[in-house]
Amino acid sequence: MVLRRREPGLDRKFRLPLHPLIPVLTVAGCVWIIKDLRPITILMFALWTAVVLVWYSWSGARIRSSVANSRPA
User: Fold this and answer.
1) Mind listing the pLDDT tens digit for each residue in 44-69?
2) Rounded CA separation 49/71 (Å)
3) Residue 53 resides in a domain
4) In this structure, are residues 3 and 10 in contact, taking their beta carbons and an 8 Å threshold?
């Protein structure tokens, strides 16, 4: 979606029909499915998502700092 805004004339091999309706309907479908889950399932999903986001941001920052430290001055 970012490239659609930044580079609208860029040649793309795949074009999504009915854009942006399809992504909006997909999100609505996911919310419709999630609403019927038990609260403990939603809570566990939220907790695991938080753990993965923290781990991902920590490891990304660690990799960026090690790359910056290994560059010759």
Assistant:
1) 999 999 999 999 998 877 787 776 67
2) 33
3) yes
4) yes
Query: How many domains in the chain?
Result: 1
Residue 53 has which token pair? 């986001």
pTM, two decimals, is 0.55
69/49 Cα distance (integer angstroms): 30
Range of the domain at 70: 38-73
In a domain? residue 1: no
- Which of these, 14, 36, 18, 38, lies nearest to 26 by C-alpha position? 18
Residue 20 within a domain: no
18 within domain boundaries: no
